[in-house]
Design a protein that fits this description.
Elements (H helix, E strand, L loop, with lengths): L1 E9 L3 E11 L4 E12 L4 E2 L10 E15 L2 E14 L13 H11 L14 E2 L6 E17 L2 E19 L8 E24 L4 E23 L16 E24 L5 E17 L1
Length: 293
């Protein structure tokens, strides 16, 4: 058994921890587990709602692997990984203020107990927003590889699955007033794939030939949501106020499904020590279905 660990400390009270351990369970089975964690304060202060620690660090991930050789002719590799984050992110720093900020934004922000960044300074790590933005993401993946030697031919199977999702809630007026918010999933992705492959070599009497042939299949699903919401102070917009009320103002939903299938082949003929001839082919077929509302 062997392992490693690493700990680091950074500015803004941030710590990162990484570690891994290798375990030989037997002469034919071994495993590895690795993980890392990052936690810490943010490096921006929000004068809008008094919250600090904007753009903080709160994430972790892990990966487990198994390698198995049940016989001289078969080897198996299995991998699983998972990661997630949940952070108060992300906001830009203002370089300049709009001329109307002091006249319009600041009184509106004060009316809800908020504030704005006046004067603006891009060198300050200060933002002004009436909410605390959130960014969340989750990612999981599984992969399996099997190699089986059948005489002079090797059969390989590659199986994979991955699922990723995220969400982002933020202040889209980027000020201390309560006018425009957004919810976004950018995007959610699910993917599964399978590849079967045969490979080998033979002697033609006029040089050896190395060849590979196989088939591939994958299915991918994508979903994206983008929502904008007029918030409580939208009626104070100059000319639009009387015609707008708080609530959803825009919603876009996109979905796409892609199925792919392919067949392929490849060979290299070593005619002699100085000459090799390589050829190959691939046929792919994709079917895509999507909707946008």
């Amino acid at each position: 058994v062997e392992g490693m660990a690493r700990v680091s400390y950074e500015e803004h009270n941030r710590a990162r921890i990484k570690g891994a351990v290798n375990v030989p369970f037997s002469d034919t089975l071994a495993g590895r587990l690795s993980a890392n964690v990052g936690i810490g304060d943010g490096w921006m202060d929000n004068v809008g709602n008094g919250a600090s620690e904007i753009n903080d660090l709160d994430r972790w991930s892990m990966k487990g692997q198994l390698a198995w050789e049940p016989s001289e002719d078969v080897d198996v590799w299995l991998s699983f990984d998972y990661s997630e984050l949940d952070e108060k992110c992300c906001l830009p720093v203002k370089s300049t203020n709009d001329p109307g900020d002091a006249i319009f934004n600041q009184p509106l922000a004060a009316a809800i107990g908020s504030n704005d960044t006046i004067p603006a300074n891009i060198n300050d790590t200060v933002v002004g927003t009436n909410i605390t933005p959130r960014y969340k993401a989750e990612d999981v993946g599984v992969a399996l590889e099997v190699n089986w030697d059948i005489g002079d031919i090797t059969l390989t199977s590659l199986t994979a699955y991955r699922d990723f999702s995220d969400s982002n809630f933020k202040d889209n007026d980027f000020t201390g007033v309560d006018i425009l918010l957004s919810n976004q999933n950018l995007p959610e992705v699910s993917l599964i794939s399978e590849e079967f492959r045969l490979s080998g070599n033979f002697d033609t009497g006029a040089g050896s030939v190395h060849w590979t042939a196989g088939m591939f299949y994958s299915k991918e699903e994508i979903q994206l949501t983008n929502e904008f919401i007029w918030s409580s102070q939208v009626n104070n917009l100059f000319f639009l106020g009387p015609f707008i009320s708080p609530g959803r103002t825009y919603l876009a939903e996109f979905q796409q499904e892609v199925e792919s299938i392919a067949g392929f082949g490849h060979f290299t003929w070593d005619v002699n020590d100085k000459l090799s001839i390589t050829g190959g082919f691939r046929y792919s077929y994709d079917q895509k279905d999507g909707t946008l509302v």
